[in-house]
């Protein structure tokens, strides 16, 4: 039996748990640990900073600081607070009383352009854990991190701060979060949970921590680095699948056919092992997952120990997928310019009404929205741009209105960038009247309008993947 296994056996089953970072990952995780009968007590750690310190009192009052609907979350919070099983504190020294500590601290990109992640907050959290680490404890990283971080930077910082040795004095693992806003508790309970330790004993201890909170989901044990690659790869693959259909949409436009017919055709090939993951073409890919996880994976293979054997001078298909997805807002701009040109207008001086600022349909989340680069291109070309979104209220530097009529009034071009349900209801006749132009332009980036209805009303129509309609005669 190793030194660590002896220490874990002496300590006995996990009873007291700490979660660092009271955000949309840490809060549901802490509450589910607190609700598990086999655990005695959970501490949620939150820095008393002026931006997030208010969460401490809110949580201890049984109030959720998370915005948006989270089914069951506030009731669960009140239940565990009342039962005295959960408490939020800024006092990190209490870490030394615990059996296990998880870190759920976000790892944004400092500057999306250079794609170097900002691990600052995570490193501070790891340092705090190291300062109060005791032999026989388990440390788990839940944040999305570059593969190699758990066995690399995290292990290093914990050992420096504690003077203890990972894998001998304490257990260390990575268990990536897979939660989506709006279904946090359900995701944690029902998704399978990837759990990767730096060694067998660490993996086993982490499995003991996560098993009690799973209802439908199962634990999938592996190494820490394999867990880091799994998390980044699952989003990289989704981004790649989206890029594959985006590229096909561009091909269909060039070949004068309807990408949605082709999509239906390809998707019809079903059955074991032959199904194709055909997703949906669109105006671009936004959000905080797919836009960054590819670069975490790419960085991971670069800092990895081994030698990568890869076709000489070829781009990684994953990075190429990012480039294709990031080209889609540019393509939307090119479609807009081509449509305006068809009626003898330039982007410069035209009034462009953008429908949709959120990065995803029927949501107020606008992180890394493809609408932003599209708007920048139009503004740089001298257009007057007005933005509509029914959910996004404000965004730095961008005025957004939820009054559709006001936004499209007098517009030369109406451009759909998000697939919000409201946009499927817009009628060609109504829109033509409000635009007040003989031949307004409509550019559809999310397949929300019926081309013939708008062409019939005298619109110049352009749609992503609609090679069968984009060259239509004017009415
Ligand atoms: N998009 C397309 N075509 C598609 C699907 C998405 O253009 O067929 C675009 C969306 O418009 C959006 C972006 O891609 O701009 C991302 O969409 P998403 O549905 O992937 O939503 P995300 O970014 O919230 O992804 C999250 C991820 N979950 C976690 O990281 C825990 C992802 O792994 C999930 O697969 C995804 O939710 C989901 O399936 O809901």
Overall pLDDT confidence: 95
CATH topology of the largest domain: Rossmann fold
Roughly what fraction of the amino acids lie in strands? Answer: 5-15%
CATH class category label of the largest domain: Alpha Beta
**From the 3D coordinates, which CATH architecture of the largest domain would you assign?**
3-Layer(aba) Sandwich
Tally of extended strands?
14
Give me the strand/helix succession: HEHEHHEEHEHEHEHEHHHHEHEEHEHEHE
The CA-CA distance between the termini, in Å, is 82 Å
Question: Please, what is the CATH homologous superfamily of the largest domain?
Answer: NAD(P)-binding Rossmann-like Domain
Rg, please? 26 Å
Number of domains as seen in the coordinates: 2
Secondary structure class reads alpha/beta
Strand order of the largest sheet: 3-2-1-4-5-6-7-8
Inertia-based shape: elongated
Spans of at least 5 consecutive residues whose pLDDT stays below 50 are none
What is the helix tally? 16
List the helices and strands and how they pair.
Layout: H1 3-11, E1 16-20, H2 26-35, E2 41-45, H3 54-60, H4 73-82, E3 86-89, E4 100-103, H5 120-131, E5 138-141, H6 150-162, E6 171-174, H7 184-190, E7 193-197, H8 200-210, E8 219-223, H9 224-255, H10 259-267, H11 293-303, H12 317-342, E9 351-355, H13 371-380, E10 384-388, E11 400-401, H14 404-408, E12 413-416, H15 428-435, E13 441-444, H16 451-456, E14 460-463
Parallel strand pairs: 1-2, 1-4, 2-3, 4-5, 5-6, 7-8, 9-10, 9-12, 10-11, 12-13, 13-14
Antiparallel strand pairs: 6-7
Helix pairs in contact: 2-4, 5-6, 9-11, 9-12, 12-13
The protein binds ligand SAJ.
Ligand SAJ is lined by residues 178-180, 234-235, 238, 242, 279-280, 282, 285-287, 289-290, 359-360.
